[in-house]
Amino acid sequence: MKKKKRKFLISGLLIAGALVYIIATGFKGNQVFYVTVDELYAKAPDLYGERIRMAGNVVDGSIQKGADQLFTQFQLEQEGKKMPVEYHGITPDMFKNGSEVIVEGSYSEDGVFKADNLMAKCASRYEADVTDINAMKQAKDTPGY
Amino acid sequence: MVTLGTLSLQLAFVLALAGIGISIYSRKQQNQALMEVSNRIVLGVGALVTIAVVILLRNLVVSNFQVEYVAQYTSRNTPLPYKFTALWAGQDGSLLFWTWILSIYATVAVLQNRKHNLNLLPYAITTILVVQIFFLLLVNFVANPFHLVPAGFSIPDGQGLNPQLQNPGMMIHPPMLYLGYIGFTIPFAFAMSAMLTGKLDNLWITSTRRWTLFAWLCLGVGITLGGKWAYVELGWGGYWAWDPVENASLMPWLIGTGFLHSVIIQEKKNMLRVWNMVLIMLAFFLSIFGTFLTRSGVISSVHSFTASSIGPFFAGFMVLIIVASVSLLLLRLDVLKTRNKLESLTSRESSFLFNNLIFLGICFSVLWGTMFPVISEAVQGAKITVGPPFFNQVNVPIGLVLLMLTGVGPLLAWRRTSLESFKRNFLIPIALALIAAPVFWMAGVRSLYPFVSAVLIVFVGSSIIQEFWKGMTARHRMTGENYARSLVNMTLKNKSRFGGYIVHLAIVFYFIGFTGSAFNKEIEKTLLPGEAMHSGMYTFVYDDYQQLNRPNHTAQVVEINVLKNGRPYGKMYPEKRMYFRSNQPNTEVDIIQTWREDLYATLAGVTGDDNRATIRMYINPLVRWIWVGGAILAFGTIIAMLPTKPRTRSDKTKTSDKTS
Predict the structure, then answer these.
(1) Are residues A91 and B365, on separate chains, in Cβ contact within 8 Å?
(2) Which residues of chain B does A122 touch, with a Cβ-Cβ cutoff of 8 Å?
(3) Partner B, chain A 10-39, Cβ-Cβ below 8 Å
(4) For B436-479, what is each residue's pLDDT tens digit?
(5) Scanning B132, B156, B496, B606, which has its CA 20 to 30 A from the CA of B217?
(6) Strands A31-35 and A52-58
(7) Contacts of B150 in chain A (CB under 8 A)
(8) Is there a contact between A125 and B382 if contact means CB atoms under 8 Å apart?
(9) Class of residue B503 by CB neighbours under 10 A (exposed 0-12, middle 13-18, buried 19+)
(10) Neighbouring C-beta atoms of residue B506, cutoff 10 Å
């Protein structure tokens, strides 16, 4: 009976160990640093070449498209700090002036964020924009509304 | 009208509060009259919340923009069906919706149990009402859907519902998830009641078996529908992105799956009693946690950027769940422990145990990955996220082990597997897998995971078919019924077992689809009319462009002529729409779907005088198998849920396995 118990314990531990190993190694090379624009400027040299994710708003009027629509440049703004971004690929539908976006990519000496992943705020399955109603309340004071 | 809604929610709150006290007292005093009072309170709360829901729906339908929620999520020209679905489009409404479903579940549970389950029911009611109180607290005081716009301020038209949410799949996907999340409340409540009363036999499990199955089914279907919606609506060519909100729904499903398996061991062997308690607590906790993740914006996801005021309330409630669960568990630990031990590594029991370990492992990795930004920020001070590469790298190998267990588990005998029975059960599936392996290799399936997955699919698929075949032929020999009839009767005679096997088959279908994604291809080009791009045996010719004016949007539509090996194969019409009201572009994909692969076309836009179009084509093999797998999963679970005829005790011991 004792031997059996040990057998179970060992195989259980083996499985648990394998799981832990797989999860632990999974983090290697798959880490993305989530920073604010401000932080990126502050920590810049350390983050060169790392994979970085940033959130912010698209600065009004800053969107420039290449001839083939597959190349996009814009300015990302967060808490007053701006960052030029280049993105290669098809932009999502929600991407437009002023929209909230998350970009993922890398940053280097040239001071331009190279994004290969661009997510725009999804009209959540459960949630529309909470700020809408506030905008509506402000609009109350605007004549003609 | 609106006042009546507010009032009924307030009344429901007070009533539920009273119900908590009465249900506890009635059980303490063993006072049946009082128990009946608390039963009726549950029904009363259900009625009151229903009134509130009906009133909110009415306001949505008649577009009463005095109600802030109505103005936020509908407009006058929102189509009627979507005015109804706006009930769960926003935070306040969806919390009310949550409360409502729970109150209906509670009503059904009371009606089911009030006659014969007097021991467990009162404290189960207490637990349910505590959960109910939490949500009533939110809809009454924090996120009231009946909140009015400031006085003297009239809104001519509402914001309208986002066009992406105006999709039939979107109408049922969130409620399905909610039905699943909330469904775990009932088994959890009976588990808590079992611990409070000390009646720790299998009664709480048998009384809630179908509840668990139902919750699990709704979650599974909801997750699959969510994937389908993302696939046809969002236009990025995939169905699963390991987004926090998706992960939030996957976690309780995984734990629920583990629970469904391990309760079989408790029912048959009276083992794992502590474990089952832990699993149902986890499933319930993760359901609340999932609602919290979706709602609170703790983890920024594509679905929730903005932080919300209800976060701290959820955090408090989750702490309460943990404290209550853990302390009860510790209190009853001695009684829960059993002397029965596992006998052999190669037994059904231990395969279930391993399967549980694996489910827990996947759930843990998903949780860890989802929460990593929060954890790393607390520990290291740097917010680090992990994306799909992490989840795939971790979960693909674990998932493959799980797939293998799906095949191996049901073939192992209870207690221990003799060499004879091993040969008898494994010979054909292993032989078929060995034959299939070189075929896959020759066909070009050569990277490790897809190859292993393909071989396992053959192994597991054939083992399931073998089980049905064996049962069918045995019954045919015994009863003389024809094959089709004996297949049906055998399944109905043993619903939970064969229903479970059908679900296993569904899992095989899912894995076929997942494996296909290893061979996805995409190609993206800007083309002039008449130009073409190529991928594999397909040629895509940009034929024609049109600008169409429709009632609420304009659409750029391109015609793509698809050639397969040079021969005409089909035409595709992806669109780029611009909705007037929201001034929002919207991609309409076009998909040609076959069992072999999907051709998936998206249009980024058409520009210039020469009408150059930027088109992206995805070639996604085997995606359809996933949707079909979802249907099979639902079918199998429903079979397993069908009521079994009441049996006598001696019968019960004779019949073989429950769901596996």
Answers:
(1) no
(2) 164, 234, 302-303
(3) 11-12, 15-16, 19, 22-23, 25-27, 29-35
(4) 999 999 998 999 999 999 999 999 999 999 999 999 999 999 99
(5) B132
(6) parallel
(7) 137, 140
(8) no
(9) buried
(10) 24
Pairing of strands B567-572, B553-564: antiparallel
- Which of B300, B589, B618 should one mutate to test binding to chain A, selecting the residue with the greatest count of A CBs within 10 A? B300
Nearest to A68 among B236, B354, B526 (CB): B526
Residue window 389-448, chain B: list those with CB within 8 Å of chain A.
Answer: 389-390, 393-394, 397-398
Long-range contacts of A10-19 (CB under 8 A, 24+ apart): A11/B345, A12/B353, A12/B357, A15/B354, A15/B357, A15/B358, A15/B361, A16/B357, A16/B361, A19/B357, A19/B358, A19/B361, A19/B364, A19/B365, A19/B398
What band does B167 get if pLDDT is binned at 50, 70 and 90?
A: confident
| Calpha distance B406→B502 (Å, rounded) | 11
Phi-psi region of A29 (alpha: psi -120 to 50; beta: other; left: phi over 0): left
Chain B residues within an 8 Å CB radius of A30: 386-387, 389-390, 393
Give helix then strand counts, H and E, for chain B: 20, 11
Q: Is B295 on the interface with A (CB under 8 A)?
A: yes
How would residue B282 be classed by pLDDT, with cut points 50, 70 and 90? Answer: very high
pTM: 0.89
CB atoms within 10 A of CB B452: 20
CB contact set of B259 (below 8 Å; sequence gap of 6+)? B212, B276, B279, B280, B283
> Given the DSSP bridges, would you call strands A64-65 and A113-120 parallel, antiparallel or unpaired?
unpaired
pLDDT for res A8? 79
pLDDT of residue B299: 61
| Chain B (20-49) residues lying within 8 Å, Cβ to Cβ, of chain A | none
Out of A25, A32, A131, whose CB is closest to B385?
A32
Of B500, B546, B11, B621, give the one whose Cα is nearest residue B257: B500
**Spatial distance between the Cα atoms of B627 and B598, rounded to a whole number of angstroms:** 12
Residue type, B418: S
Q: Where are the alpha helices (DSSP H) in B230-300?
A: 244-269, 273-296
B93: left (phi over 0), alpha (psi -120 to 50) or beta: alpha
Dump pLDDT digits (tens) for B32-66: 999 999 999 999 999 999 999 999 999 999 999 99
ipTM: 0.75
User: To which residue do tokens 């979507």 refer?
Assistant: B82
Q: Are B95 and B138 in contact (CB under 8 A)?
A: yes
Reduce the DSSP state of residue A66 to 3 states and report it. Answer: coil
B526-547 pLDDT tens trace: 999 999 999 999 999 999 999 9
Residue A123 has pLDDT above 70, yes or no: no
The three-state secondary structure class of A52 is strand
Interatomic CA distance for residues B298 and B105, integer angstroms: 29
The whole-angstrom separation of Cα B76 and Cα B70 is 10
Cβ of residue A128 closer than 8 Å to a chain B Cβ? yes
Compare CB distances from A128 to B89, B149, B368 and report the shortest one's residue: B89
pLDDT at A138 over 70: no
- B159/A89 touch (CB, cutoff 8 Å), yes or no: no
Count of alpha carbons within 13 angstroms of residue B526, beta-carbon side: 16
CA distance B352 to chain A (A): 12
Do the Cβ atoms of B245 and A125 come within 8 Å?
yes
What residue spans of B380-447 are helical by DSSP H? 388-408, 419-442
Interface of B with A in 602-621 (CB under 8 A): 602, 604-605, 607-608, 612, 614, 616
